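Archive entry. Fields below.
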Amino acid sequence: MKNIYFDCDLGADDALALAYLLASPNINLLGVGSVCGNTSADQAAKNTLDLLDLGGYTNIPVAVGEQDFRVNTFDDSVKHIHGDNGVGNIELPHTSRTPVKEDAKDMLLRLSHEYAGTLHVLAIGPLTNLAAALESDPTLPSRIASVTIMGGAAMVPGNISAVAEANIGNDPEAARIVFEASWPITVAPLDVTMANTFEEEHRHALLHSTNPVAQAVGQILDFYFDFYTTEYGRRCSAVHDPIAAALCAEGITTDIAPCAPVTVDDTQGPGRGQLICDLRGQRVGWHDIDGAHVRVVLHTACDVAQHLVDVITA
Amino acid sequence: MKNIYFDCDLGADDALALAYLLASPNINLLGVGSVCGNTSADQAAKNTLDLLDLGGYTNIPVAVGEQDFRVNTFDDSVKHIHGDNGVGNIELPHTSRTPVKEDAKDMLLRLSHEYAGTLHVLAIGPLTNLAAALESDPTLPSRIASVTIMGGAAMVPGNISAVAEANIGNDPEAARIVFEASWPITVAPLDVTMANTFEEEHRHALLHSTNPVAQAVGQILDFYFDFYTTEYGRRCSAVHDPIAAALCAEGITTDIAPCAPVTVDDTQGPGRGQLICDLRGQRVGWHDIDGAHVRVVLHTACDVAQHLVDVITA
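PREDICTED_STRUCTURE:
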């Protein structure tokens, strides 16, 4: 069982990732921290609590995290993608449970001591909470087994600028701190998350499941599919956050995932928010670069969407 | 016949491009400007004069251009790629002809008046001369029919940094001026120039030609192939500059070449020198973006190397 601190801005695809984590046999979800991004940090925490309690996971604590980015301003501007409430305008059954008193970064720091050496971090929103934790305690990486992140665009266009993906681009200053810290990172950029799609057949499999969280996620994705129809030319969606979750759970395999030097553009220039992955010299065969601590997942070797459905509806 | 001002830092692959232009039936090469890059501006002018006169083109004038970049310093650091003299350490027969008195930017400006509306610019080195001409006379674009450039890396790694290609990255300030000017640009980035290779069979076809310029270029490329062996795992080279020349001469066809918004990162950040091509929203089919004036050539629909050989050895 992998001990997990899960940081998210839940979020339509975050909801799918959460449903997957809850159903995964090898995941011990110790706590969830919320962050602004797809919705506000408060709303993300509410959505997470609603989904957890809908599934009966009433013992998993949720901590509210950073309400704003370090330099950019959170402006709740992706309601056209995730709905006004972050979960595709679906009214989930509302739990009376509330977030814990500690904030997300303190939850992460506490868990890093309680599970020193065995705690894995899964971060699928802006990296604001993780950066705050690193600034509070720079020794944090020494107690973390691994960090898995959804973010960036290595060799494909970005989604909030020509080169910037939302999680990195919303808070480049935080992302730079996180990617420069000395912990082993696996990152799933748009290269792999846009290449994998969740289709109507997969969504219907969730809707027809007996798992109430799966059913809710199937409903939530309806709105998300509307947005992605423009991108793909059919009703489906990218598989952003769930790929990071499946990598963390070791449920999927990859065939192109070199360790490479990675940095973040936190200038105010036209490349602001770009996750710069140095993939030079890989033409004769993908290989790890000496000293690099970030594994950049460029291609999966399996049917990710079917894997998600199989685990969630098992 | 297309009237051409040709700006180059000759250069092993520049030599191949020049041999192609001289042999092209539809090119009227009015003048050549040299710029620092693959070698110094003085050496590039010498190499160009030697090749021109070797082929009997003693009436084509060569003007020396900018000796240094706008902010970066020219440091003649690619001798391992292009040889100490820019032409693979081959001793070309040296002509006694010397560059004209006017500098490259003045040649470009003069030609733009003499051939107003019909002058095409082909630039395969850093864009320092073109930027200088634009600053001298901002009305220049109104007299230019088209600009074709080799430079940038749209969705592949750079070659002087993770994201920067040498022509743009050596002088980002100049490149930004050139790409922001209101003239129609066609740019061949590493995406297409690295995907096309010049093989030993092509080089041998040049060596065995009766064209003395072709023979010289076949010899020059030997050293260049040594460098690219590491990149490709076999003796061959990329086809950087000749692709821009062939696009300018309309000798090759493309199948992916959308007009897209393009800018240059001229910050001092980690993305410095990147040609940022906004290729978002092209998943449902490559298409031109309204208002964009830069055509980004991503894929050729023909055998470029064979076309070069066919034209040069005809």
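CURATOR_NOTE: The first strand of chain B starts at residue 2 and ends at 8.
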